[in-house]
Amino acid sequence: MLTERYNIPGATAVGDKANALINHLSSTTEPRGDGAHPFTLDFASAAKFPDATPKWVATGSSSGGIAGLIGAGASIFANLTGNGNGNNASKFDSSDVGVNARLVKWLLERAAEGKRPRAVLMLDFYRDNMTDDGNLATLLAALNFVTDD
């Protein structure tokens, strides 16, 4: 259960936290045998004081944080559909990227496939360094309009 993963082992475990979250959310993108999609509650928050504060885990240490990564969203979509050059996708996987940006990458990839998670997500710093029209909450709301079979 992800609630057990709030107290991560340290700053190097941000990728592990993001992977655990994404693996758990992945099960909600596909219907079960009865055609219904599972629904879950997930916590993207984590910390290990003093080297991995909740803000650092959420936004990472890169300058510009998630704002710079969300700004690359259009080119990520282009790359996923074969119309881009592939240069921006690696930004989401670097070691200085927080959980939120890694979640954004995964959500954009699923949206390009016509899929979306069915979940309530508890997030820290989802608007950090972002404008009102470009934040993680806006992306999550937009995913409600992704239709899948």
What does this structure look like?
The protein is mainly alpha-helical and 149 residues long. It has one domain. The protein has six helices and two strands. The chain has a two-stranded parallel ribbon with strand order 1-2. Helix 1 packs parallel to helix 5. The longest helix is centred in the C-terminal third of the chain and has 14 residues.
Which short descriptors sum up this protein?
single chain; 149 residues
Topology:
Elements: H1 14-26, E1 40-43, H2 54-59, H3 65-70, H4 73-80, H5 99-112, E2 119-122, H6 136-142
Question: What amount of the residues lies in strands?
Answer: 5-15%
Helical/strand content category: mainly alpha
> What overall form do the CA principal axes indicate?
elongated
Mean pLDDT: 74
Radius of gyration: 15 Å
The N- and C-terminal alpha carbons lie at a distance of: 28 Å
The number of helical segments is 6
Q: Give the strand line-up of the largest sheet.
A: 1-2
How can the largest sheet be summarized? Answer: 2 strands, parallel
Give the H and E element order: HEHHHHEH
Multimeric state: single chain
Total beta strands: 2
What's the number of structural domains? 1
Unreliable spans: 63-72, 83-89
